[in-house]
Amino acid sequence: MLEFFLTQIQSFTPALVLTLGLAIGLQHAFEPDHIAAVTTQVIRQKNKSQSLKELIKKSALKSSIIGAIWGAGHTTTLVLVGLLVYLFSVNIPDVFFISSEFIVGVMLIFLAITTLSNKKLFKIKHMHSHAHKDGTIHIHPHDHGSDHKHGHKSYLIGCIHGLAGSGVLLVVIAGTLSSIQDILSFILIFGVGSVIGMTVISSLIGIPFALSNKALSLEKTLRYVVGSVSFLIGISIIYEIVNVGKLFSF
Q1: Which helix H or strand E contains 147, and what residues bound it?
Q2: pLDDT band at 122 (very low <50, low <70, confident <90, very high)
Q3: Cα angle: 72, vertex 76, 78; to 5 degrees
């Protein structure tokens, strides 16, 4: 059904084109590799001192923010690709997107390993400025502890996903529209749909992980399941790219 609509997109009214873009964006958020990547970020939230009700509420909120940030990164990449291809007439070779898909597979395996081990493989420190009442400003480093979160990791993961998979295919399909304004509008509304979809999905994903804060065995089980699924999806992507996409064939 979706393929039929995409092949007929040139004959649609602008309003219908945008509606289709939004619907496809919502569906796009449900792709397994997207969910796996975001889930590995959601599972790291911990706060055992709150009541179950507060945990569920805050976990759903924080998880939805992670999903929204992922979607923003995904949308950023798609819009940039659309600008380069259709506004600046830049020819991006297919091997670039195939390589990006391979990187997604590697990234999922990396996220799986950090999730299964429940450790960060790289200790990252950030420098932050801090202002005092007397106007004095100094800069201090800090580790990424469980009480201090940044959204840049989810944003970067979203950006990488935006360079691979069906998202790029939608950018190509958008090129069949009549004007650059229609093309970029379609890509942008598709991105908005993916942001909304991933925000909702992440919010729901956060609920069982909130419950796991009260049960150590459940937390371990969920962590092993999420890590294993992410690892298998990463392996399957790499296998497909190497054997079917012939990434390293010469």
Answers
A1: none
A2: very low
A3: 120
* Three-class SS state of 105: helix
Q: Which residues contact 245 (CB under 8 A, 6 or more apart)?
A: 98, 101
Chain position carrying tokens 């065995």: 217
Read off the amino acid at residue 119: K
The 3-state DSSP class for residue 2 equals helix
Q: Please list the alpha-helical segments (H only) found in 83-212.
A: 94-117, 152-162, 166-174, 180-212
What CA dihedral angle connects 71, 173, 106 and 213, to 10 degrees?
Answer: 30
- Go through the chain and tell me how many residues it has: 250
Cβ atoms of 167 and 74 closer than 8 Å:
yes
Average pLDDT along the chain: 80
The pLDDT tens digits of the residues spanning 9-63 come to 667 778 887 888 888 889 888 888 889 988 888 876 555 556 777 878 888 888 9
Distance CA 157, CA 198 (A): 13
Side-chain-side CA neighbours of 72 within 13 Å: the count stands at 11
Distance CA 236, CA 249 (A): 18
Task: Give 142's strand partners.
Answer: 126
Handedness of CA 204, 44, 151, 25 (dihedral sign): negative
Please tell me the pTM assigned to this model.
0.81
DSSP letter at 8 equals T
H or E element, residue 137: strand 137-143
